[in-house]
Write a sequence for this structure.
């Protein structure tokens, strides 16, 4: 298991060398975790120019060993910065400079201006370049162990949601239902929720990123929930919309069918070689044609992994094409202010058609349930 | 109520003018909230050079109106950036440039290098300077409404903790107790937890920032908890350590007395004019003299407010002196790996001696309780 991190670091090092800078400083926690097995708070990873033996994880304090931070690659050298609380990025730059590197690639989309300036001050001979999104791109295609973690995260999520659906919902607040869902995620083995659980009922239903309020579930409501488990750092997402009571209204059935159809179109567009914007369009144009184009979310879906929201983005202006083994969400929705709405969200892994097409991880039924 | 935000913006504008740059771009969410009443996700605040009427809150999407993000100052002009998902900081720089400003102060300890470069690209005529920690410093001294929110946050926290102490603890996992505490915070009116609740039992007790595990509470354990409520954005903190069972061991009583004495010394050092490092030393030297200097936390306490961890830092190298109406924590502790430990944490407001000295917000008893 620990070889996988050394291999990932090697691949990144090769990219850096090709780009002219053999040393790199990784500071974004999910990227540190991806390359080092774990990410103690504040830790940075220095990829040495020489090779794996010069790689170093620098931490501001002695790591707690909290499993939630991941399991550090034992082959990786670990340094605690000498002065409590000092910025380990500074120690990393000094280390790179001291080992003869003349250039250091840093994550300009993560380091603040202030930190960057400090690095230039302590290591003036070091040319700082931009790593760009190199690690984010490397993270996109998952290996089978990563997909296994996502599969387990999805099972946990399906279980938590399934249990909630068997319980009484009318009269309970969005907040309580959200807390209940999060408790069940942990009960079923999650490290924690993948993101703040969303429960939206009545006029709130279908709202993207609705924060649970004290509104109580009522008969006749749409109820939309969005939740996910974090399992060993890997995060998945499911979103479902239900109707409360015995008989959905016609407008509810029609809206649900529309969003279901759009979401299915998005799912079916997931193939290796498909453009990100084409997947987005497959779902978006159906909602647009039905007159709902105005209030739609900026993207139809996004990658998942060590972060709940990672590359790629399935959005109208996105460049790039899907590969096999890239996990993404497909989550279109329509929200009608004051009335409610529908959002349907799955996590799937892109697979070759010959391998059966996209692998659906979140298997809770998408049939419209009256609860 | 809405005047308070205009007044805060005015004070900041005056500081900026004095520093040579009449326009400022605030991006750190707590700072945006402090100055604008609310902080929709991704929003930035542009302080105009001309005066209050030119101030503008720029948002990447239409705000949801989620109360958890605060209540926006109605006098403040609100702009949603024209293209969905574009960086509102860019729009802000263009706006400042267009209104004739020649300099713009930005938060270099918040903006990434990449964002900063984009601002320079879109507004090349605009000289970008550093706001430094100006807003963080302005936030340190709280007004009576802010202190009232912290008082309520502390009451909620004391209530949640008090209820837990009346329940059965033996046999329950750290995780479940933490989730239970967080549920009770919300039940008693919190917007949510101020930070991830820590519950640490047996050998984990006294560990700083321990993440709750599946370890179950046992007779004879130390049990240390650390939690806080977020009430209207204002966050407080309490930490207490208990013994499980009827008879604490002698080593437990001795260690508890030591930490209690150190914490009391820290609290009693809180006076207007006292140096941050002197408050730290008051607690730290007692623990150090008893032989526990090695594993101590880097700071004895910190400010609280719209962030759980804000200026000032009560630490050995900290420069500066306390003012009245600055709320801080005092939270020394000792952790003995494999055995457990004690941490005692209060939130207090610095007050003049003539006003009764430091106002204790977290009033749960600090007597060693056997539960």
């Amino acid at each position: 298991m620990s070889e996988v991190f050394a291999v990932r670091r090697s691949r990144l090092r090769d990219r850096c060398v090709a780009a002219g800078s053999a040393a790199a400083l990784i500071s974004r926690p999910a990227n540190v975790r991806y390359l080092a097995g774990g990410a103690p708070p504040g830790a940075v990873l220095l990829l040495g120019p020489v090779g794996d033996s010069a790689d170093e994880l620098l931490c501001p304090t002695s790591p707690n060993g909290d499993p939630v931070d991941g399991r550090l690659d034992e082959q990786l050298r670990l340094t605690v910065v000498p002065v409590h609380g000092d910025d380990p990025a500074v120690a990393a730059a000094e280390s790179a400079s001291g080992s003869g590197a003349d250039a250091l690639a840093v994550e300009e989309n993560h380091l603040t201006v202030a930190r960057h300036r400090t690095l230039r001050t302590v290591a003036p001979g070091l040319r700082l370049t931009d790593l760009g999104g190199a690690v984010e791109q490397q993270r996109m295609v998952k290996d089978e162990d990563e997909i296994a973690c996502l599969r387990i995260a999805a099972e946990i999520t399906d279980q938590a949601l399934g249990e909630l659906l068997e319980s009484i919902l009318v009269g309970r607040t969005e907040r309580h239902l959200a807390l209940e869902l999060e408790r069940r995620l942990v009960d079923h083995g999650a490290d924690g929720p993948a993101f703040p659980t969303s429960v939206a009922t009545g006029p709130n239903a279908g709202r993207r990123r609705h924060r649970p309020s004290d509104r109580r579930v009522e008969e006749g409501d749409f109820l939309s929930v969005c939740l996910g488990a974090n399992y060993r750092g890997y995060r998945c997402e499911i979103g479902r919309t239900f109707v409360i009571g015995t008989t959905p209204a016609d407008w509810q059935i029609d809206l649900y069918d529309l969003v279901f159809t759009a979401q299915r179109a998005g799912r079916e567009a997931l193939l290796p070689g498909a453009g990100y914007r084409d997947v987005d369009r497959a779902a978006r144009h159906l909602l647009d044609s039905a007159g709902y184009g105005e209030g739609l979310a900026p993207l139809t879906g996004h990658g998942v992994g060590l972060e709940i929201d990672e590359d790629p983005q399935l959005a109208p202006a996105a460049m790039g094409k899907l590969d096999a083994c890239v996990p993404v969400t497909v989550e279109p929705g329509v929200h009608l202010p004051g009335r409610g709405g529908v959002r349907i969200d799955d996590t799937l892994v892109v697979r070759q058609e010959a391998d059966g097409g996209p692998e659906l991880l979140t298997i809770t039924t998408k049939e419209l349930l009256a609860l």
